[in-house]
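Technical appendix A lists one of the benchmark inputs used to test multi-chain prediction within the project. The record comprises two sequence entries:
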Amino acid sequence: MQSLAGNEYPPSQSVEVQPLPSDFASLFPPPPGLLEDTWPPTQVTYLGVYLSSLGCKTLVSESHYIDRDYIHDMALFYSRSLRCYPNFCQRLHFFTEYFDLETWKRIVGDASSYAQNMQFLQKAYLGYCVVRPLPGSPIGRTVLVTFGPTTPTDTRLFDAVRDYDIHLGGFKLTIRGLAFQQQDQGVSACATTALWSSLNKVAQFEALAIPTPAEITQAASRYLLAEGRALPSEGLNTNQICEAIRGSGLQPLVSRSVSFDQDCAQLHGYIRSGLAPVLAIQPVQGGSAHAVCAVGLKVGEVAPQTTPTLNYRDAATSVRAVYIHDDRLGPYASAALSPWTIPATATSATKIATGLRIQWPDKVDAEQSILLAVIVPMPHKLRMSISRVRWFGLALAQAVGTMFTEFAKKVVFSCRYRVATDYRSEAHQLGLTDSGLYLLNCETVLSRYIGVIEFSSNEEPLFDVLLDATETRANPSILAFVRRRGFPDEHKTSFELIAKNCGARVIW
Amino acid sequence: MINLYVERCPMSEQLNERKEVVEEKAMSEEERILQALERARQEVKPIVKKEMEGEVITDELLNLRLKT
């Protein structure tokens, strides 16, 4: 007789509601059999700690959820295993309010209070976690809210996140974060999952489809198979990551780590632009190199200028830590940045690298790594690197600090990319004259992506310089100087002359 | 003959209009600014050079395997 085990059709769905257990890992019982690693996985422990710190109180689980990323992994790899892997997952939703199953039923069933109930759920919603039916690596696509915007001493900036729409019980909820998942070591290793998180953000700029981990691994190993087999995935090299980025319709920009200051500048520029870079890091304890996805920054005060001949401050000196999606750990893990001395060897001199100190929830000692490279998936038309934007920024900031005594050693410059339409839509807040606003919004042609160098003093914006980010190195590319509230009227002529000498339009 | 090298920079028309405003006295101011910009460019050159080194990619980096 034909067995229908596991083939129930149509599939049934059940929703359970429960308080967040004090031991979150109890939701993930160890799979039967001898495991290579300890149980629970660090990612589960981390998730429990993270949810508690967000104030999670209630958990709603859906028993049957088709996850796009998992089902592609399933089609490519797991469907041909001996084990009968289901093609569906569970999904857990997290809320900051207490409610039970009865309340949930009332919320869903009360048609007259739909808008009110949706507002209640939206306010309390923290995000979701897809639980894959993979015994050793259950954490699938997970989107959670970030930490709050401030710490007692510093500010958190999560520019590389986006909005996700979630449908639960007939309600459409929105969450702002960036997707994370645990590597499964079948279809994806660290590089694939880091790149997958990164593309979740960057693909949105160009309205591209987000490749699944299976598609990323396939694209990476289509032409370049560095060593061994493509599946099970044993990691990717930088070349393969670049190939996967090209395969997704974007362009890879690779920046090698040169110095601590340069690395902070790169991270500041790309993350503040909303591009989530993949970081290649090397644990100092040894072992293989690793890939993580940078999502946000922890910033403090901008450092004062210490070089006597220089008259500006660099906003990139405010970077204290980078928030990363580390697939060995979890989403938004804090990696404190500091200079790290690499002792001299027989073949190389002493070098100051960028150290990343990552605190694990289940280890006393933090893990220390050094940054090797930053790999950024970039839209095709974003050709100008952040180093080149900074070239203009450094020179102009030095000139401004020299020419205007009130700004000497006080003027701060900060570089990033903006989508021109976003910049224009916020232009009414810049403090421009009526004619200036009209000139910017109706009579100035901007490239789709613009490099924006923001100049400020004592946290008061002075002016912006807009660059044509489609330009190459050889050609002049400053489009406009845009005056902001803090720039004094008495320097208008000088402002115009600086702009003229840079070949740029003045928007006052 | 069509001159392909006509200055099409958007700022040129505006700057021409402003010639009346920027009088002779301002010409010396313009020179001062030109010099300051050039001096600033030279002063930050070593920093820029160091930052641009990061864009030089080695084979070792391209072949670096990320697999932890």
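DSSP finds four helices and one strand in chain B. Chain B touches chain A at residues 9-11, 14-15, 18, 21-22, 26, 29-30, 32-34, 36-37, 39-41, 43-44, 47-48, 50-58, 61-68 (CB under 8 Å). Comparable benchmark entries are summarised in Table A2.
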